[in-house]
Amino acid sequence: MDCRNCPNTECFINKYCLPDWLDYTQHTKISKHISAAKSIFTEGDLVRGIYVMCSGKAKVLFKTSEGKEYIIRIAGKGQLLGHRGLSEMMVYPISAATITESEIAFISNENFFKLIRANKDLAFYMMMFFADELLRSEQKNMTNVLQSSNEKVAAALIRVINTFGYKSKKTNKIDLSMSLQDLANFSMITYESLTKVLDTFCKEEIIMRTDNDISVLNESALRSLTRMES
User: For 153-176, what is each residue's pLDDT tens digit?
Assistant: First the structure.
């Protein structure tokens, strides 16, 4: 996508950079087309820049010492990846991979810092973005301790809706784009627990499920189960 006339109104670069700097970004970024289920960056890699999702879907994940994979965040078009590595160590503490085929723009550290210094609206957005990320991270930690499996799955489904939306607003079919195993990892529960919760939600007419397709019948009931910001 061309940053100078990008149709993606959700892209934070597009929204918060001045026109001259959109032109600068277009000429300095590196665009990559990455197929589904491929690595974007890996835990332990040196941070050389940030990644902007131009299209497609991605997941941010970490693995425990036992090899268990958990998804801690999902990202759609216009959203940022790689920012968690911007620290004194400049090493990624997590990994990221595509869920679907994606176009991703890479912006080097040097150029990204230039954008922040030159565009005050972008600098303010990034400050609020990091504050929001910290809040969500703290809530995620609380979720693991305080929430039931039902609440964890409800929170995960709401995050998917907030990030990817619906495939069809007529049927309220969630644009899930991930396997049920990934959804279980995102919910921080086992696959078996996930299927039990989904069956419960179906019986309570909160959702309707056909294989991997999930349609929401009562979004307000789903949101009321989360107890926290989603």
Answer: 999 999 999 999 999 888 899 999
